Amino acid sequence: MKKNLYFASDFHLGSPNHAESRIREDRIVRWLTSIEASCSELFLMGDIFDFWFEYRTVVPKGYIRLLGKLAAMSDSGTKIYFFKGNHDMWVDDYFTKEMGIQIVSDELVIHRGGKSFYLHHGDGLGPGDANYRILRKIFRNPVCRWLFSVLPPKIGLGIATGWSGHSRIANTTTEEVFLGEDKEWLAVYSREVLEKQHYDYFIYGHRHLPMIVDLGSNSKYYNIGEWFGFNSYAVFDGEELRLEYFERPDKQA
Predict the structure, then answer these.
(1) Integer distance in angstroms from the first to the last C-alpha of the chain?
(2) Residue 252 belongs to some domain of the structure
(3) Which of 18, 45, 94, 175 is the residue whose CA sits 20 to 30 A from 51?
(4) What is the number of domains present in the chain?
(5) What tens digit of pLDDT does each residue of 94-136 get?
(6) Which residue range forms the structural domain that includes residue 207?
(7) Per the domain annotation, does 253 fall within a domain?
(8) In a domain, 137, yes or no
(9) Cβ distance 56 to 153 under 8 Å?
């Protein structure tokens, strides 16, 4: 019976190279196959691709195994949501037309099983992300997007590939560390939101470190990590939200 909600983010497919990305893509497809029978709704919460840009008739090549699996899941009745991340913000309508996937540009609030969820990729929120907030406005500006679109795909996607090779996930040499509940900027942001509106769960990606932070007021912040090392995700079974790991026997939720 399909009743579970699954949340995952930061696959960064395409990085750091084709060979390593393919290994990760195969693992993600195995995970999707393992949850397919129980998955009612799938929330892909940003940075699924290390870069994505849709020209009118051209999309980045590759990722056929992931796209095929998502198409099959959508066709079988699974509702899929795709959040724009800071690496794949230039998603347009290709996934919607081809697979019926709903595109989410910013936050999404949902209510399931008597619980309220505040969902966002996490980029540009809270203290400590000021520089990116400026870049986010620039890159999401329609003029900026149009200027990139007039480049021939060979040139535009070539530039993007080089840029992707210098991304944080492709060049990280140290593990992410927990900064403390008072310094984790998405926890700080969530507490600010709670002052105006209560949510049972705040779920983000972007941070690349799976964690659960008790925010008080019967609310929790979940970061669902990444798929370079943690292979982490969250699942809500109608009663409980859990942080879990795929093919990582050394990690416990």
Answers:
(1) 24
(2) no
(3) 175
(4) 1
(5) 899 999 999 998 899 999 999 999 999 998 887 766 666 555 5
(6) 4-245
(7) no
(8) yes
(9) no
